Amino acid sequence: MVRTFLILALTLKLVGSASGQGDLDVRKDLTDFDNILALTAIRDITFATPLTGLSIANADEVNLSKVCSAEFAIQTGFPSPELNSLLTQLLGAQHRPMFRSATLEDYGAYGYAWTVTWELFPKLGGSTGIPFKWKAAITHDGQFVQPHLFLQSHFASYFGPENTIFCTLPMARLTPAPAALTASELTELKRVAMHRVRETFQAAGYAYKFRIDRAVSHEFPGNIPGIGDDKHKSVAWSLHFVEVNHEDRDPREFTVWADDSGNVGDFTIGRWDANWGKPIDEPKSRP
Does the pLDDT at position 7 exceed 50? Predict the structure, then answer.
């Protein structure tokens, strides 16, 4: 059982357009949290921090007197220059983090950990609606717990979340400085992606028909831990599907993510389990 011992929080309540935060709500509400310390969704990337990142040899000997201060945890959890570079790419402009809360919790055998939450605001002013959040997990002795990064899209029903479809690609699968896909490899990627979309949507009970509107390659900074190296950028592909036969309404859309070798991401229905980079064989149904 997780116990919360101390909360330092500054609460800001905003009402209005949610901008891109609707994605955050879906991904947060339909994610299995059993092994996740912190979850943050910013545009196409979900940052998930594993509970196993807290593993220590003598967790039962850790007490509150040995836990780092909230001030130290806040300093350690401040977004790094590497993360800010990625956030700027995702959000299209530089943002400044504003501290919102630091919470100390007891994770039993894993010991204590801080969760530090920041809200992101455009550096030059203005507003993006409800601000995006960045959450950092800090161990009891003040070490930053590296999150796992996932490229992720979802498709939700108008009538409820039960049959939400996720396409998730662990960014750890991306290789630095990959060779570009050939025309025939890209054609094969489109074929496989179309098959997986048809198969998954049918399994979820949807009758939508899609066409591939475009395929786009994305470069990511090579200095982000876990997705490359300091010298080379990593590349992923997004295949954008658009509904056909939508008559008098706007077409529905869905994005399939693929790695630099042309392998599509994992499809799940109902809920998403991070599974820490391993493919999920069977879709989880919503309990």
Answer: no
Number of H helices, E strands in the chain: 4, 13
Give the percent of the chain with pLDDT over 90: 39
Task: Confirm if 239 and 258 have CB atoms less than 8 A apart.
Answer: yes
Q: 70-117, pLDDT tens digit by residue?
A: 999 999 999 988 888 888 888 888 899 999 999 999 888 788 899 999
Sequence-ordered strand ranges (E) for 107-189 = 112-122, 132-139, 144-145, 148-157, 160-170
Helix (H) or strand (E) holding 209: strand 209-220
- Whole-number Å distance between alpha carbons of 33 and 128: 28
What does the alpha-carbon distance between residue 166 and residue 30 come to, in Å, rounded to a whole number? 10
Note the Cα 162 to chain centre separation in Å: 20
Task: State both tokens at 162.
Answer: 């039960």
Domain ranges in the chain?
Answer: 3-146, 154-277
CB 174 within 8 A of CB 259: yes
Q: Which two tokens stand for residue 86?
A: 């990625």
Cα torsion angle, 200, 202, 205, 206, sign: positive
Q: Rounded to an integer, what distance in angstroms lies between the CA atom of residue 86 and that of residue 174? A: 15
Q: Please give the C-alpha separations between residue 262 and each of 121, 241, 265, in angstroms, as whole numbers.
A: 35, 17, 10
Q: What is the pTM of this model?
A: 0.82
Which residues are CB-contacts of 71 (< 8 A; sequence separation ≥ 6)?
none
* Rg of the chain taking only CA atoms, in angstroms: 20
98's tokens: 């504003």
Confidence of residue 126 (pLDDT cuts 50, 70, 90): confident
Mean pLDDT of the chain: 80
Is residue 216 within 8 A of residue 240, CB to CB? The reply is yes
Task: Please state, in angstroms and rounded to a whole number, the distance separating the CA atoms of residues 136 and 134.
Answer: 7
Neighbours of 111 (CB within 10 A): 22
pLDDT > 50? residue 19: no
